[in-house]
Inverse folding.
C-alpha cells in the first residue's frame, strides 16, 4: 500500500462527505482502518431512524475507496437487503447468494478473466453492507419469525470469520475455464449491518417511563429568553437511544446474542438538528433544492430560497424525527411542485437586469405548510 491511512485520515474524508454523526464516523473510520490493513474485522452495526444518514455513510465509504488509487483492491462493495439473502435457487444457501453478489461486483471491477487466486483475494477484500437487519428479528408481533432466525444464523456464520467454500468458474493456469472451489476467508471481509430499529426506540422509552429497571430518564434545564427581555427556565426530558441502550434491549427486540456479539461496535445515529438539515438542503449531492435550481435554470429562471424560508423548512422537518432528512425532500417537493409546473404565473417571479428570478420566501413556505395541515 503506497500510503498508510490512519483512522483520523479516514474520518477527515468521511466528515467532508457526511453532515453530522461525528460519533458514528469515528467508529466506522476505525473499522475501515482495520479492514484495509488486514487486521481482525471491525464489523459494525448501524442503528438509526430513516433519514439520519445510514445510506449516505455507506456511499461515502464506497467513494473513499474510489477516490484513492492505492485502495483499488478494496472497491468491491455491495449493499444488500437482509431479507433478500433468502435463496432464489433451490439448494442454494444464503452464503452462496451473498458470494454471488460479491463476485459479480468483483468481475465488474476487474473483468471476467480471473484466476482462482485473484478472485479469492478480491472477494476477501470486499465491504458488505446489509441493510434492514431489524427486519430479521427473531420475533414479529410476539411470535417466532422462522425466516428471521434462519437469516440471523446465516449472517452469524459469515460474521464468525470462517473459511467457506464457494464454487464458481475461474481461469486455469493453462488459460482454459473451469469450475473451482474457493475457500473464502470471511474474517477478512468488512460487514456493515444496519437498520431503523424503530420499535427499539419505543421499547426502550416505554421501559424507562414505566421504570422497569434502574434506568431513569434524565432531565435537563433550558433557558428561554422572552421578547420582553425576561428569562424563563424550563425542565425538559430529551430521549436519545444512545444514552440508554443496553445489549439486553437488543435481545428483547429479537436479535440473537450470538449475532449481536459479532459486532465490534454499535453505532447509533443521532436525529439531525436544524443546522445539519439546512446544510443538507444547500450542499448535499442529492439535495432536492440543487436539482430544482438546475430545473429552473434550464427554463431560464434563477431560483432563490431565502434564509428564513430555509429555516422554516428545516424547523418543520425536525418535527418528523422518524424520517429525518427525508422530511426535507417531502416538504420541498410538495412546496415547489406548482412553481415547477408554471413559474410564469407566480407572483414570486420577477424580472431583473440579470434575468427572471423566482424567490421562495418564508411567506410561500408558511402558506404551503398551512395548506397542508
Amino acid at each position: 500500500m503506497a500510503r498508510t491511512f490512519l483512522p483520523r485520515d479516514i474520518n477527515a474524508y468521511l466528515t467532508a462527505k457526511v453532515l453530522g454523526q461525528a460519533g458514528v464516523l469515528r467508529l466506522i473510520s476505525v473499522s475501515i482502518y482495520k479492514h484495509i490493513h488486514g487486521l481482525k474485522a471491525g464489523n459494525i452495526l448501524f442503528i438509526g431512524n430513516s433519514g439520519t444518514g445510514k445510506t449516505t455513510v455507506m456511499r461515502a465509504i464506497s467513494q473513499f475507496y474510489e477516490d484513492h488509487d492505492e485502495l483499488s483492491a478494496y472497491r468491491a462493495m455491495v449493499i444488500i437487503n437482509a431479507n433478500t439473502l433468502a435463496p432464489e435457487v433451490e439448494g442454494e444457501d444464503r452464503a452462496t447468494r451473498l458470494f454471488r453478489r460479491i463476485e459479480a461486483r468483483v468481475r465488474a471491477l476487474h473483468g471476467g478473466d480471473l484466476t482462482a487466486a485473484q478472485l479469492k483475494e478480491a472477494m476477501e477484500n470486499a465491504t458488505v453492507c446489509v441493510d434492514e437487519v431489524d427486519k430479521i428479528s427473531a420475533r414479529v408481533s410476539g411470535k417466532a419469525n422462522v425466516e428471521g432466525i434462519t437469516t440471523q444464523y446465516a449472517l452469524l456464520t459469515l460474521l464468525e470469520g470462517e473459511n467457506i467454500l464457494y464454487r464458481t468458474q475461474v481461469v486455469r493456469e493453462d488459460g482454459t475455464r473451469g469450475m473451482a472451489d474457493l475457500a473464502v476467508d470471511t474474517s477478512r471481509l468488512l460487514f456493515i449491518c444496519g437498520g431503523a430499529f424503530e420499535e427499539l426506540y419505543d421499547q426502550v422509552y416505554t421501559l424507562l417511563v414505566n421504570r422497569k429497571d434502574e434506568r431513569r430518564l434524565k432531565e435537563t434545564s433550558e433557558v428561554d429568553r422572552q421578547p420582553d427581555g425576561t428569562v424563563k427556565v424550563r425542565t425538559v426530558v430529551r430521549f436519545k437511544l444512545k444514552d440508554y441502550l443496553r445489549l439486553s434491549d437488543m435481545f428483547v427486540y429479537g436479535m440473537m446474542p450470538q449475532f449481536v456479539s459479532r459486532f465490534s461496535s454499535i453505532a447509533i445515529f443521532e436525529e439531525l438538528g436544524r443546522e445539519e438539515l439546512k446544510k443538507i438542503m444547500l450542499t448535499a449531492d442529492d439535495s432536492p433544492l440543487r436539482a430544482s435550481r438546475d430545473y429552473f435554470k434550464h427554463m431560464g429562471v434563477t431560483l432563490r430560497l431565502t434564509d428564513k424560508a430555509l429555516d422554516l423548512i428545516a424547523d418543520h422537518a425536525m418535527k418528523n424525527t422518524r424520517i429525518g432528512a427525508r422530511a426535507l425532500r417531502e416538504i420541498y417537493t410538495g412546496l415547489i411542485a406548482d412553481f415547477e409546473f408554471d413559474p410564469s404565473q407566480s407572483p414570486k417571479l420577477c424580472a431583473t437586469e440579470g434575468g427572471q428570478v423566482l424567490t421562495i420566501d418564508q411567506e410561500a413556505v408558511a402558506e404551503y405548510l398551512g395548506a397542508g395541515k
